[in-house]
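Appendix B. Raw example, untouched.
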Amino acid sequence: MAILILVGGIFAAGLIARGEAAGADARAYWAGVRLWLSGGDPYHPTGPFLPYVYAPWMLPLFAPWALLPWDVAWFVWRGAAILLLLWTIHWAYQRRPLPTALIVLVLAFPMAANLDTGNITLFLTFALWGAQFTGPRLAGLLWGLATWMKWAPAVLWVILAPRARAWGVVWLGVSALLSLATLPLTIVQLQALFGFGSRPIRLDYLVLLWAAVPWLWIHPHPLWWLSPREWPRVAASLRAGTASWARRFRTDPDLAAQSAREAVRQRVRAFLGLGTGRA
């Protein structure tokens, strides 16, 4: 609790000190939608706004929020981010207090940076957090949208449930088709995205690691393969499997190759939750 109180106090002091200077990224989404609705170009805004840099077909997703006056919209955006962050910390703290506090301490800077700028990365983190408690279709949709928006969430594909991984690939494909359907605006988006020149290392993206906490907390031994005690067992299993396949290969190479292909296919299907009879 002392760690969380210290981090929370620093967060509060920083947010108060920043005042009106905060919210640059959220303001870009807000202004981009308003420019788009008025027939303007959200990727080349006029005025003190950063350009909107996400897929053109995602603009309507921001519209209900962007129609609010800026002061109200920023209050809603930051207020929702703070409440969701507190709720996820509460959930994790109830299960593993000290590890939760230490992870919050390690991720304090990226969390604070996202709260300051209003970058959507924090909301994508919450979406990936929630994807672990929903059905496979919705989980895949949340991961697909987050990945098409930022690409950094792609590495968290492995923490989804097996069937959700398959749906994630489907929704990622749908996102790609939507971007193709909105050409040439997608080309303008890519030009705006890569037109910033050199950028500093985006440490604020590390906040996405917070989305892995439910997976770590729910599984009894999620990182068992990192434990040196397990390495001899893993090595023995690999040696036994390799020796068995080598014997089959010497006896019947074609059958051994077919068996290896079938084993790989079964592992891929199991990883994607295919053939389980569940939607």
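End of appendix B.
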